[in-house]
Design goal:
Radius of gyration: 25 Å
Number of strands: 7
Bound molecules: iron/sulfur cluster, FE2/S2 (inorganic) cluster
Oligomer: single chain
CATH class of the largest domain: Mainly Alpha
Order of helices and strands: EEHEEHEEEHHHHHHHHHHHHHH
Structural class: alpha+beta
CATH superfamily of the largest domain: Alpha-helical ferredoxin
Distance between the termini: 45 Å
CATH architecture of the largest domain: Orthogonal Bundle
Shape: globular
Largest sheet: 5 strands, mixed
Helix content: 25-40%
């Protein structure tokens, strides 16, 4: 094999990078944290550094890679216990700080060797999602193609960005407790098809995802959103699946009942009526079994009396907000605002477009349609191709 040559960019300096890597051999069960030091160009990524180590120091080091540019999803691994894409992670700042990061294989998947995991459980769940459009949709008129509104595409835009790297699965708390949990990647993939108006199996899909090990087993820890290198935000996809399920009347799970009661309680009183939360979520019979516990809480002043219900002074604001969502037809996934933020992230321009997470982006607005030079009311659709938008 020829030596890896990583030339520094003109004007850039080289860096001394030190790493500790968890080496593992599944056949012998040997495990060892080994330290490596290597000189690398200032722009080097973690993947570049691993290439240099493998080429110059230790050819037995195992890791996966292919595209080297955040497309193929092969190079997921952990740095200091958090999943990263090695080809995205720059090393200069870390090396200059003197920190020596610990590199290890992704979590929640069996390790085969060093930084290589067995992706079989990941792909099994991916395939179980039937990640293709199901027949049943209306065929377009001959010679025409399906046209889907921008608003509908916004709902599944982020989910379409997934590169199947597994970083979200690596960090998922629910999967750690229950390996059968469908998990963030599979559910984000599921939402990509549930939200596609051309798919003919929306209800069947939602029924599946509402079963045991499905959407309501997510603990909402948001680690998947935090670690996804492509901005898919799988937790948001799971929230959309929950909203779509309730919209379609698939609400048998306690999680769905819980969510519904939050909305009802906020709408009617402006508060969360906690005392009624248990019977509304678990049902009367189950609540009676919890009576001893409830009385104990009541004795310590932890259970507010249900009657008369505590109504917020400004309850009308909560009701007006609820009515607005209804009037705008923002039930189901359309009511999950993060989808619009995701669009802002990829559509912003140096010419002055809004950035992701801008506080200015609110439901009902059209963040992608504002660019420096646009006339008021001009839209993406109005813009002439090649005009710089
Ligand atoms: S938010 Fe849910 S799916 Fe995402 S990592 Fe946490 S438990 Fe897993
Ligand atoms: S959702 Fe993000 S982290 Fe998870 S597999 Fe897809 S790209 Fe990777
Ligand atoms: S090598 Fe392809 S995503 Fe990193």
């Amino acid at each position: 094999m020829s030596e890896v040559k990583l030339e520094a960019m003109p004007g850039s300096t080289s860096i001394e990078v030190a790493l500790k890597i968890w080496r593992f051999n599944r056949e012998t069960g040997e495990r060892e944290l080994r330290r490596y030091e290597v000189e690398a160009p200032g722009e080097a990524t973690l993947l570049d550094v691993l290439d240099l180590i493998k080429d110059r120091i230790d050819g037995t080091l195992a890791f996966r890679k292919s595209c080297r540019m955040m497309i193929c999803g092969s190079c997921g691994m952990r740095m200091d216990g958090a999943a990263v894409l090695a080809c995205k992670q720059r090393m200069a700042e870390i090396a200059e700080s003197g920190h020596v990061p610990v590199i290890s294989a992704m979590g929640n998947l069996p390790v085969i060797k060093d930084l290589v995991v067995d992706m079989t459980p990941f792909w099994d769940k991916f395939k179980a999602m039937k990640p293709y459009l199901q027949p049943g949709y209306e065929e377009p008129v001959e010679g025409k193609e399906h046209r889907i509104s921008q608003e509908r595409m916004n709902v599944i835009h982020k989910e379409s960005l997934c590169i199947n790297c597994g970083c979200c699965v690596s960090e998922c708390n629910s999967m750690e407790a229950d390996p059968d949990f469908l998990g963030p990647q599979a559910l984000a993939k599921g939402m990509r098809f549930v939200g596609d108006p051309r798919d003919g199996a929306k209800i069947e899909r939602l029924e599946d995802y509402n079963s045991e090990h499905g959407i309501w087993d997510c603990t909402r820890c948001y680690f998947c959103n935090e670690r996804c290198p492509k901005g898919v935000d799988p937790r948001d996809a799971i929230a959309k699946l929950g909203a779509e399920s309730i919209e379609e009347g698939i609400d048998r799970d306690m999680g769905a009942k819980h969510a519904k009661w939050f909305v009802k309680s906020a709408e009617t009183t402006g508060w969360l009526r906690e005392t009624e939360l248990v019977p509304k979520t678990q049902g009367i019979v189950s609540s009676i079994k919890e009576m001893k516990f409830a009385l104990g809480l009541a004795r310590h002043g932890k259970v507010p009396p249900p009657f008369p219900p505590h109504v917020a002074e400004d309850v009308n604001e909560a009701r007006a907000l609820h009515n607005l969502v209804r009037e705008q037809g923002r039930g189901g996934a359309l009511g999950i605002v993060q989808g619009e933020r995701g669009l802002a992230r990829i559509e912003h321009t140096e010419a002055g477009g809004l950035r992701r997470d801008s506080a200015e982006i609110t439901p009902g607005e059209e963040p992608i349609r504002r660019y420096a030079g646009d006339a008021p009311g001009q839209t993406t659709d109005d813009r002439t191709p090649g005009s710089g938008a």
